[in-house]
Amino acid sequence: MHAPHLTQLPAWKALEANRDQIARTTLRELFAADPTRGERMAVEGAGLYLDYSKNRANNETLSLLVQLAQQSGVEAHRDAMFAGQKINVTEDRAVLHVALRAPEGSIILLDGVDVVPAVHKVLKSMGAFADGIRSGTWKGGSGKRIRNIVNVGIGGSDLGPVMAYEALRHYTDSSLTFRFVSNVDGTDFAEAVAGLDPAETLFIISSKTFVTLETMTNAQTAREWILAGLGGDTSVVARHFVAVSTNAAKVAEFGIDTTNMFGFWDWVGGRYSMESAIGLSTMIAIGPRHFADLLGGFHAMDEHFRSAPLERNLPVILGLLGVWYSNFFKSQSIAVLPYEQYLKRFPAYLQQLTMESNGKSTRLDGTHVTYNTGSIYWGEPGTNGQHSFYQLIHQGTHLIPCDFIGFNKALNQLGHHHDYLISNIFAQAEALAFGKTASQVKAEGTPDWLTPHRVFEGNRPSNVIMADVLNPATLGSLVALYEHAVFTQGAIWGINCFDQWGVELGKQLAQNIISELESVTQPTLAHDSSTNTLIQRYRSRR
Ligand code: G6Q
């Protein structure tokens, strides 16, 4: 039997009516009518405080959104994920990233087997290796200490490690240099190794499948670079390469000793893997203890997601508000604006998490959706964006809900910087919500002709997410907050958050085109006229 269609659910219908009512009111009016709104519409959990009061929503909206979650089976779907059911149906896989951060001794069964001991076994071997690099006992082939760590990976095998390294830089061992190579563009590799001594360099080849074109190409180039730097001595290559993968056979085929391989499992999706062995570079950078704190933060949010009532559940609320704007206000995008320089790569990380997970238009039952799904996520660290694209958010024609992220304590306490920084979060959220009316603008002595240009309509929604300080635990909570918000949305939309078939076609077509570009003789081209011409032009001009 087919589940009732999302748009036919009673809560959906009621939300449409509620939207019509909300559309006639403003955040100014909503706040004026309820002096406690700012305290009431906030929720705290796993070290994070979410103020969602500046959303175009009233009490009824929130309760209807929660009903929508219930009527579309979010809780049952969540429990199925935690129970190791194969909810990634198009790949016939369980989705158990929550097991990666389950404390030792807890039990998560997959096909009747507890996966937690295997997770901790890998964590221990990662820890021993990380300690070896950090203490200098693991040496390169020529006996020199490893000082440079280069992670080679792409997508989920890159974005998490890069983001976490930048986010936790304050906690890293500054005697070690970390670089990241992802793009198949040779410039990425060339610049990543510029200035590095091969004798002191370790490559972590991070690839779940170990067949990814970009990563295998970069890994091969890395091998040649090490060999050239170490006088062609193949016997020492092993000291400069480790692998993170689920594919031992391919790792061995590449020439990496599988004793230097850190494994994970097919139930870990690439974009959900930063706390698996894919986080090896993170663990080397911050040390095993801090890595354990990171896992602790993730786990705290997992527990909150699993046990908090939906109306007090941070990821559920965040996810539901995304559904609210996407489906009931036809909003297309969400800006994520961390007011924390260390989170400068967080928006890029979130783009994959959100858009690769929920950028789907086929429902689990194979039918095409009749409503919007995943939003376009984007952002920059504050306050830089304020001097650039915030103009459009404040006065443009698009409705762009914003997530502001800030921390009560600075990691680099310098003069007034932090108060200035945080004042801008509060001010931006205030300006977006309440704007500035024509009479306020006029009262400042603005001439009539200029007044309309200086009016801020307001009524633009935002969330403010605050934590005490950016540390491994709060980073883990923050990432898990968005993971579960994405999950909540996917469950409501009835799509599979955990596959990514949309990345396949381009990859396949590139394989054909590679041989056409590299063919010594003139290839017979059978593409469309545009692709044929582009290939011919490139061949004759490169
Ligand atoms: C993530 C995707 C994708 C993947 C990369 C790298 O969810 O599956 O971004 O992480 O394509 O894949 P490998 O780790 O297999 O090289």
Features of the shown structure:
542 residues; alpha/beta; six-stranded mixed beta sheet; five-stranded parallel beta sheet; 22 helices; 13 strands; globular; binds glucose-6-phosphate
Explain how this protein is built.
The chain has 542 residues and is an alpha/beta fold. Helices cover 46% and strands 11% of the residues. A hairpin with a 2-residue loop joins strand 3 (109-110) and strand 4. The longest helix has 22 residues, at 472-493. It starts with 9 loop residues before the first helix and ends with a helix. The mean pLDDT is 97. Glucose-6-phosphate (G6Q) binds next to loops.
Number of strands: 13
Proportion of β residues?
5-15%
Largest sheet: 6 strands, mixed
C-alpha end-to-end distance: 58 Å
Instruction: Output the number of helix runs.
Output: 22
Structural class: alpha/beta
Which compounds are bound in this model? glucose-6-phosphate
Strand order of the largest sheet: 1-2-13-12-10-11
Structural shape: globular
Rg: 25 Å
* Overall mean confidence score, pLDDT: 97
Low-pLDDT runs = none
How helix-rich are the residues, as a percent range?
A: 40-55%
